[in-house]
């Protein structure tokens, strides 16, 4: 049974989210402050943390930063609508995903499922060996700079390959514009989001992405993620 730590200073949200997760077979631990969350991560060893960013003591972004100093537990942040800057800060310091308030239980469950898969893959999932990445039907041979989709060879430019390979190393996880630009283009980049729009469009065409079940997903104002379309199947 997977353990989910839910951190929020609103009792109503703790009750509702806790009940929704428990109804689907998860063990739920709750915390109402940042300090309590840090303690619970240490003592309860949760499989996923659902973390509100607006906490009364230690800011949620700071909680993410501190946790990443010693733990790789997946973190799904809860943020208020319209707070893209806060989402980006949390993702840049190590959060894996986010859900915007108000949110549906179905959306949160989908994000939790992706986070659990991400953790399982990090322990031995899509990395077949040190040089091969697999996400769904997308396979990247990093050493040879070769990509196949459902067995079909795809010809990518070096930057397209770098963009896709970076996302494939963190399947399901949102990577911010800044993180992608600095990793693929270089440390002097960080604001040239127009580059990413162009390359994302090119990649979607070459991957033959279905708009209804995309592999390469845009998170408006935040960044991109690479998904196995099966990851977000409802009812799992």
Provide structural commentary.
A 5-stranded parallel β-sheet has the order 2-1-3-4-5, with helices on both faces. A 5-stranded antiparallel β-sheet has the order 6-7-8-9-10, covered by helices on one side. The chain has 236 residues and is α/β, with parallel strands linked by helices. Mean pLDDT is 88; it is low at 123-129. 40% of the residues lie in helices and 23% in strands. It has 2 domains: 3-122, Response regulator (Rossmann fold, 3-Layer(aba) Sandwich); 127-232, Winged helix-like DNA-binding domain superfamily/Winged helix DNA-binding domain (Arc Repressor Mutant, subunit A, Orthogonal Bundle), CATH 1.10.10. Helix 2 (34-44) runs parallel beside helix 3, helix 6 crosses helix 7 (177-185) and helix 6 packs across helix 8. It has 8 helices and 13 strands. The two termini are 15 Å apart.
What CATH calls the topology of the largest domain is: Rossmann fold
Return the average pLDDT rounded to an integer: 88
Overall number of domains: 2
- Count of helical regions: 8
Structural class: alpha/beta
Query: In which order are the strands of the major sheet placed?
Result: 2-1-3-4-5
Q: Mind summarizing the main beta sheet?
A: 5 strands, parallel
Radius of gyration: 18 Å
Identify the CATH homologous superfamily of the largest domain. Response regulator
* H/E element order: EHEHEHEHEHEEEEEHEHHEE
What is the terminal separation in angstroms?
A: 15 Å
Number of strands: 13
Known CATH architecture of the largest domain:
3-Layer(aba) Sandwich
Helix content class: 40-55%
Share of residues in strands: 15-25%
């Amino acid at each position: 049974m997977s353990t989910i730590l839910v951190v929020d200073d609103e009792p109503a949200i703790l009750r509702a989210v806790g009940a929704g997760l428990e109804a689907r077979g998860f063990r739920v631990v709750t915390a109402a402050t940042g300090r309590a969350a840090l303690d619970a991560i240490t003592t309860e060893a949760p499989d996923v943390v659902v973390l509100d960013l607006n906490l009364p003591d230690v800011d949620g972004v700071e909680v993410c930063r501190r946790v990443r100093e010693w733990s790789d537990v997946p973190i799904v942040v809860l943020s208020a609508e319209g707070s893209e800057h806060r989402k980006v800060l949390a993702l840049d310091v190590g959060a894996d995903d986010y859900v915007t308030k108000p949110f549906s239980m179905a959306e949160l469950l989908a994000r939790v499922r992706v986070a659990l898969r991400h953790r399982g893959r990090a322990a031995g999932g899509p990395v077949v060996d040190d040089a091969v990445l697999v996400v769904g039907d997308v396979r990247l041979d990093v050493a040879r700079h070769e990509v196949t989709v459902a067995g079909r060879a795809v010809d990518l430019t070096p930057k397209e390959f770098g963009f896709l390979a970076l996302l494939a190393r963190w399947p399901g996880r949102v990577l911010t514009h800044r993180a992608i630009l600095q990793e693929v283009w270089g440390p002097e980049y960080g604001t040239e989001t127009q580059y990413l729009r162009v390359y994302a469009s090119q990649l979607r065409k070459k991957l033959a992405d279905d708009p209804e079940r995309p592999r390469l997903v845009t998170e408006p104002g935040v960044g991109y993620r690479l998904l196995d379309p099966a990851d977000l199947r409802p009812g799992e």
